[in-house]
User: Which sequence fits this backbone?
């Protein structure tokens, strides 16, 4: 009966949630600046009759739905609400109206779906025991991330487990994907500055060329990571930017590198950081230059609790059919939901949003990213049903 009611309410509220998603998509806001988005969320929740709604960590919102015997068990459901600094290329009626800002990672859909969950569970609050926390979290896209601040706020103290979902254009709409155990990688951001002696390129004896030095160092770093990283754990060390203010015949004084390191092994994560510093120090000594390394610690790896994820998978199989509930591999991408997963049992799963027949195939962080909005009905219904099953399970 709970399954039938949940599906019926998801269908009933579908058009409203589509309109909400489109409103949020038209008005994206960057990390830690989601003031209008947060105000919109609060307004919706209060208008729907939710009583326990409050702001958190500046631009976040948390609401609690209490069922019967509300202290029996508490689970949290999370959606991220921030957008990316990307200029949207779309002819859709709901294209971003904020220049250079776009919901290219689907957080508009996450927020809309969690608002749908709020409507469904508020409607069903006399049919479950325990409490459900709705976490509308800011700043997933920018270090140090909003999740860490949510954890530090203490709002989740006493919460039994947490669940999150993310749109996934690698799956067709109607399908959901799960991965037990370590799912998404830890990530850190690397900045390296190589300072040599600039000058006229025609006089190489008068310069210490930081471009050559940086190139040599990158090759050493690549070989080190390839040869020394743990064989039983995936690891990435990659650089996406090298910049210097030189030109054809001008050697710059300084070159800057930006890169990322990702791993599922915390011991190797620490060793890799040390190795980068050591290689930079040795290169500086060998090349008679200065090299400064800064590594900003990012998100930990995301750990999907086996018990919670297994229950969520069983629930999803009932909701969408076994054939539409699939196992997906580890991802080298990262997510600040990982902070929650190191505080309590957690499950982070994927909602298929692609529709090849409609041409909806663009990937995340693309300027043309969009979703098949039918996924909103599935997402809010499934998350609601998972919440109900987690509350029932002792």
Assistant:
């Amino acid at each position: 009966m709970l399954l039938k009611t949940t599906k019926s309410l998801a269908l009933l509220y579908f058009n409203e949630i589509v309109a909400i998603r489109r409103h949020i998509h038209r008005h994206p806001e960057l990390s830690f600046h989601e003031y209008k988005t947060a105000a919109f969320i609060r307004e919706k929740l209060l208008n729907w009759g939710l009583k326990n709604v409050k702001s958190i960590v500046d631009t976040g919102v948390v609401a609690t739905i209490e069922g019967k015997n509300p202290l029996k068990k508490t689970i949290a459901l999370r959606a991220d609400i921030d957008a990316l600094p990307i200029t949207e290329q779309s002819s859709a009626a709901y294209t971003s109206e904020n220049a250079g800002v776009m919901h290219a990672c689907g957080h508009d859909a996450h927020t809309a779906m969690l608002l749908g969950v709020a409507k469904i569970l508020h409607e069903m609050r006399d049919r479950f025991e325990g409490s459900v926390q709705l976490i509308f979290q800011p700043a997933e896209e920018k270090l140090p991330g909003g999740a860490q601040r949510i954890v530090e706020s203490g709002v989740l103290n006493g919460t039994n487990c947490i669940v999150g979902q993310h749109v996934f254009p690698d799956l067709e709409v109607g399908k959901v994907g799960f991965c037990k155990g370590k799912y998404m990688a830890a990530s850190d951001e690397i900045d390296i500055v190589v300072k040599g002696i600039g000058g006229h390129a025609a006089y190489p004896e008068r310069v210490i060329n930081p471009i050559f030095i940086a190139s040599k160092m990158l090759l050493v770093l690549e070989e080190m990571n390839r040869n020394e990283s743990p064989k039983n754990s995936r690891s990435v060390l990659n650089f996406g930017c090298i910049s210097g203010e030189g030109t054809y015949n001008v050697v710059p004084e300084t070159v800057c590198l930006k890169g990322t390191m990702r791993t599922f092994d915390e011991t190797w994560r620490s060793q890799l950081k040390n190795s980068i510093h050591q290689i930079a120090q040795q290169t500086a000594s060998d090349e008679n230059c200065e090299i400064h390394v800064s590594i900003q610690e990012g998100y930990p790896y995301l750990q999907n609790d086996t018990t919670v994820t297994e229950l969520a998978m069983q629930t999803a199989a009932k909701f969408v059919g076994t054939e539409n509930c699939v196992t997906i591999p580890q991802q080298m991408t990262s997510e600040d939901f990982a902070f929650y997963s190191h505080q309590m049992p957690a499950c982070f799963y994927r909602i298929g949003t692609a529709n090849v027949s409609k041409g909806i195939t663009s990937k995340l962080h693309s300027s043309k990213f969009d979703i098949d909005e039918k996924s909103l009905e599935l997402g809010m219904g499934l998350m609601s049903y998972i919440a109900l099953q987690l509350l029932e399970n002792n």
Summary: The chain has two domains: 2-183+301-392, 186-297. The chain has a mean pLDDT of 97. Residues 2-26 form the longest helix (25 residues).
